[in-house]
Every structure is written in C-alpha cells, then in structure tokens.
Write a structure and sequence with these properties.
By secondary structure, the chain is α+β, with helices and mostly antiparallel strands. About 45% of the residues lie in helices and about 20% in strands. The longest helix has 18 residues, at about 25-40.
Amino acid sequence: MKSITLLLLLGAITVRLAGADTIDPALQSKINSVIKDVQSWASDPVIVNAVKAHNAALPPDQAQLTQEKWKSLSLLDPTVRSFAKNSAAEFIKSKKGEFISEAFLSDAAGFKVAFLSKPSSWCHSGKPKHDDPMKGKIWQGEIERDDSTGIQQIQIAVPVLDGAKPIGSLTIGLSVTKLSK
C-alpha cells in the first residue's frame, strides 16, 4: 500500500513538473502569428538567394570555421561582422520587432549565413532548430534563458524553401517578457 501511495505521489509530482513550462494559450497565439510572419520572411528572394549562394559555395574565410574557432572569434572579427552586415542580415533587421531577441539564418549544412548578433554556435546541424526545418517542418523550442543573449526566450525556426525544397533555416528568438505584453 505504501508503494502504491508513493508511486501515485511521484506521478503527481512528475505531471506537475512536466506542466511547469506549458505556454499560456494567449502567448502561443502570439507565437503562431509571429511564425506566419517569419515564414513570409523566409520566402523573400533576399533570404532565399543568400542561402542558395551560401549552399553553392562556402566563402573561404568560413571554410575553416569550427565550433571552437567560432567561440574564440570576437564580435569585431571581420568574419563575424560580415554575417551582420550582408543583405540577408539587413533584411532581417528591417523586420525585427521589439520582441525579437535574436535571429540567425543558416544554410543547408547548418552554417550561418546571416544574423542580428553573433549566436553561440557556428553550426546548428544535428539540433531540432535546424533539422526540423530541413525536413520542411516548423520548430518551436521551450522557454529558456538564451546563452548568447541572456534573455528568457522561446526560439522558433522555419524552413527556407527553394520551391518546395528546404535549403536552410531561419531561427528567431522571441523575448517572452516583451511578447507577453
């Protein structure tokens, strides 16, 4: 009898913990609206052409990048700055609302093409935020504190499509605080 009571109690705690990070329906509705906007951004010719060009030929200064080398580069490094100054980055900046905490565009291999500010990883291949969009799916993460921005956020990612074929991913971090207002 004690074993059954203990199992029921542990089950109740597990259910409560699992539900602790559920997203309020009103917040989810706002996220869904942003996803529709981000899908339209990902289909813009500026974004599609930037990803296609990056997929066709990795620039020489990026060919030797690894996660370790990426982490060692300063924000002022010319390679890092080039990702925030190209036409795709300028397009993303033009769409940025106050609730967007980060944004990065990746090619088919998961390598960066453009971003608002330097993300913590050079490559997101092998992670659902890139792999799901590469399968043509929309991805939504859980509420978390982002390592690169320090902001409590939810990330979403959509495929960049060439026709119906996924060729890259566009990931956006949404500030939970600002989106909840």
